[in-house]
Design a protein that fits this description.
The protein is α+β, with helices and mostly antiparallel strands. It has three domains: about 140 residues, Beta-Lactamase (2-Layer Sandwich); about 110 residues, Beta-Lactamase; about 160 residues, Histidine kinase-like ATPase, C-terminal domain (Heat Shock Protein 90), CATH 3.30.565. It is about 50% helix and about 20% strand. It contains ten helices and 18 strands. The strands form four sheets. It has a six-stranded antiparallel β-sheet. Helix 5 packs antiparallel against helix 6, helix 7 packs parallel to helix 8 and helix 8 packs antiparallel against helix 9. It starts with a helix and ends with a helix.
């Protein structure tokens, strides 16, 4: 029972708090809405005053026009009418007319039914030497606003007045349909201008707050004050809000009062949303508190069971942790074995490439040896005959041949070396020169033409020199293998020094059958059982280039296949 009373008390407190939040939020929203409505009302009033001022200034300026000075003849009156008609068309005024001191219309832009304007309020004000203004409705229902400016003779006496008649409906077109309902009430309490046509000619009796329709029939209306704001409750049509904030602004310049009705439904929705949010938070907090209390009691009962389960789980985790450590150790050993196997695979690729080049290399070494023997015999013969110059020339040739053999053996020794060289600064031009030198014997033996034009200066990349040589030896040998069944054989090597650095190896062979499997181990297009390779060359090359942070890819062209090797440029600042 106590728990039920606590829940009811909590709900009552939440209700009171939500009501307070709604009231505060509603008043705050009304204050913001009032500021916006006041600004909109001032903007509408300024817009109306500005538009009316155009006609006011027009009356003042045209009152002293030379053509209106003397209208004592029909010709002068017609000339003045033409001027007034031109100005009327350009300013969108309803009519312009010039009146003498007796209020008689001497000339006008448009024909007028009433020639005597002596009783017009604006004209009576103009006779006193001031600018007059007045508004009214014509028999056709059109609403007009008139300005009358006095015209003085040479003695300073009022000799006439120029009256400008403006169409109020034309002025309303510029701001009709605004969100808020705006209307202007004249000194007689009649709604003369409004952006809601339903309110035109509604009336307000003296001391009355609301409005009455022209026929004087009853309407739904009530007014209240909330936080210093006047709220109207009405039911005056679908284009007017049922509950609205009412503001007023006096406009003595045009002898009217501007008023606005702003729908307060958004303020009510915002206040309701705030109250609902607070209520939801409080209810959620209360529900969580209630559930926490219930769970605390339940947890106390199940604590012993959980402790036993934790003990069992801890024992199981200890066993799993031991097994996980053993698996990690096995994985580390497997990773070490895999790395060793990769190194052996790289060395196997080197030896495979050397095996393919062995015949050509033997020829490259045998040819200088035979030449050395011949030059040695010739040198001995020349020494016997006392021709030391010829003997010296033969000895120089023997030295050149020995240097050539030493260079070939040096490249072979470096290429076949099984060690992990550190990565660093590598000259791509020198790397390709070494690869070309290692494969030159085979290419010449098989009739393969090689187009390779080294650049004038070095092109430095990040990598390992020996392993890069292995990559390009593999690519050159693969290109030669691809063209082994055709008569024309051509390999073209190009270096692009723009970053990222790239080297392309083109051939004119049949192309690549399957580019997706190109770099997979043991993938080869050679016949099964062929002694030319096991399909490891490109896979090894792919791994080597990847280890340098580069990329290698193969593609087909219209004349054969092309392999592109991209490498990072060497930078001294990054190394430091």
């Amino acid at each position: 029972m106590q728990r039920i009373w606590m829940i009811l008390g909590f709900l009552f407190a939440v209700g009171l708090l939500s009501a307070g939040v709604w009231s505060y939020g509603y008043r705050q929203a009304l204050s913001q809405l009032s500021e916006k409505a006041e600004a909109d009302l001032e903007l509408a009033a300024d817009r109306l005053s500005t538009q009316m001022q155009v006609y006011q200034e027009l009356a003042v300026l045209m009152a002293t026009h030379p053509t209106l000075r003397t209208l004592d003849s029909p010709a002068r009156q017609q000339a003045a009418q033409a001027v007034l008609l031109d100005v009327t068309d350009k300013t969108a005024a309803v009519n312009m007319m010039y009146l003498d001191r007796r209020g008689q219309v001497l000339t006008s832009a448009q024909p007028v039914a009433q020639k005597d304007m002596a009783d017009h309020p604006a004209f009576r004000r103009a006779l006193q030497g001031a600018l007059g203004n007045a508004h009214g409705a014509l028999d056709s229902g059109e609403r007009t606003y008139s300005y009358a400016a006095p015209a003085f003779d040479s003695t300073g006496r009022v000799e006439g007045a120029l009256m400008v008649v403006a169409d109020v409906q034309d002025v309303e077109q510029t701001w009709r349909g605004s969100t808020e309902a705006v209307f202007f009430i004249d000194g007689d309490g009649v709604v003369f201008i409004s952006n809601r046509s339903d309110l035109l000619f509604w009336q307000r009796a003296e001391g009355q707050q609301g409005l009455q329709p022209p026929d004087g029939g009853p309407v739904d209306f009530a007014t209240t004050m909330v936080g210093g704001h006047e709220l109207w409750t009405l039911n005056w049509g679908r284009y007017l809000p049922q509950r609205a904030l009412h503001l007023m602004l006096d406009l003595p310049v045009i002898d009217m009062t501007a008023e606005v009705l702003v729908d307060v439904a958004p303020a009510q929705r915002l206040a309701g949303l705030q109250a609902a949010t607070v209520a939801a938070i409080c209810l959620a907090f209360g529900a969580l508190l209630f559930l926490a209390t219930e769970r605390r009691r339940t947890l106390a009962e199940t604590n012993v069971i959980l402790e036993s389960r934790v003990t069992e789980r801890t024992r199981a985790l200890t066993v799993a942790n031991t097994a996980l450590r053993r698996e990690v150790r096995e994985r580390q050993e497997a990773e070490t074995a895999l790395k060793h196997a990769q190194e052996e695979l790289i060395q196997a690729g080197k030896l495979s490439a050397l095996g393919q080049m062995s015949a050509g290399i033997s020829h490259e070494l045998n040819q200088p040896l035979m030449a050395i023997r011949q030059f040695a015999d010739n040198g001995a013969a020349f020494l016997t005959k006392g021709r030391s110059e010829k003997a010296s020339e033969n000895l120089s040739r023997i030295s050149d041949m020995a240097s050539r053999m030493a260079r070939i053996i040096k490249n072979l020794r470096a290429f076949a070396r099984n060690e992990s060289e550190p990565m660093g600064k590598v000259d791509l031009v020198q790397v390709i020169n070494t690869a070309v030198e290692l494969t030159d014997a085979r290419l010449r033996a098989e009739g393969v033409k090689l187009h390779w034009q080294p650049s004038d200066g070095p092109v430095f990349a990040w990598g390992g020199e020996v392993r890069l040589v292995q990559v390009f030896v593999n690519l050159i040998n693969n290109a030669a293998d691809a063209m082994s069944q055709q008569d024309d054989r051509l390999i073209r090597i190009e270096v692009d020094s723009e970053e990222p650095l790239s080297v392309t190896v083109h051939d004119i062979g049949p192309g690549i059958e399957n580019t997706e499997k190109l770099f997979e181990p043991f993938y080869s297009t050679k016949a099964v059982g062929s002694s030319e390779g096991m399909g490891l060359g490109l896979s090894i090359s792919y791994g080597l280039v990847q280890s340098f942070g580069g990329n290698i890819r193969g593609a087909n062209t219209q004349t054969g296949a092309v392999f592109t090797v991209e490498l990072e440029a060497y930078r001294e600042d990054e190394v430091a």
